[in-house]
Amino acid sequence: MKVIAQGAEAVIKTNKKVVVKERIRKSYRHSLIDDKLRKSRTRKEAKVINKVNALIPSPKLINADEKKMTIKMDFINGPKIRDILEESDHNALCKQIGKQIAILHNNHLIHGDLTTSNMILKNKKIYFIDFGLSIDSHKIEDKAVDLWLLKQAFESKHYKIAKECFESAIEGYKEAKEFSKIIDRLGQVELRGRNKKK
Q1: How far apart are the first and last CA of the chain?
Q2: 51 and 142 belong to one structural domain
Q3: Treating both helix axes as pointing N-terminal to C-terminal, what angle do 90-106 and 140-157 enclose, rounded to 10 degrees?
Q4: Could you tell me the CA-to-CA distances from 100 to 22, 71, 110, 173 in Å, in that order?
Q5: Which of 1, 10, 34, 89 could make an SS bond with 29 (beta carbons 3.0 to 4.6 A apart)?
């Protein structure tokens, strides 16, 4: 298998049929604590992936092995939204992104890392990937922060079209059950973010 990504928490490998995410050992943590953390995070992410599979396009979970600290999923063969957004109908893609976030939030799932690097286009569908930071939450604050992270991602990677992209995403997000409350809270989150930068 070929390594396609390596982060602070995990190594991602694929053979173009399946993807295996392996949580790596942290030498600075006591081995018993490290094992316990990696097992619980592997278990939690597998549960989230199963929930997401029933809601929006995402890699299907094949299995999770808590002893090996691995999660095996379907390989999604397509370009990352990060690499095609500016040459595509970005408004249509971002509206679809917003609709899918609304579905997750209506089911109280927070992605936690909403960037265009974690979205893949295949057969005109956008697949969300990487649920390592995902949580179950009913909190308006968590949903607003999820949207704020998306806005930050647009401004960082796609600054020329960021405003249009986020407006289109919010248009799609109108399907969220608590839309008004979440958007109101988003304003507060953005204000806090700006104050921190000063």
Answers
A1: 46
A2: no
A3: 160
A4: 27, 23, 11, 8
A5: 34
CA distance 72 to 59: 9
23's tokens = 């949580």
- Residue 70 is encoded by which pair of tokens? 């691995």
Catalytic residues: 113
Q: Which residues of 35-51 are buried (b: 16+ CB within 10 A; e: fewer)?
A: beebeebbebbbebbeb
Q: For the chain, which ranges sit under pLDDT 50?
A: none
Task: Reduce the DSSP state of residue 134 to 3 states and report it.
Answer: coil
pTM over 0.85: yes
Model pLDDT, residue 5: 87
How much is the pLDDT for 142?
98
- Give the type of residue at 105: H
Statement to judge: residues 133 and 94 lie in one domain: yes
Query: By C-alpha distance, which of 180, 135, 4 is closest to 75?
Result: 4
Q: Residue 103 is part of which domain span?
A: 81-197
If asked whether residues 106 and 192 sit together in one domain, one would say: yes
Same domain, 20 and 39: yes
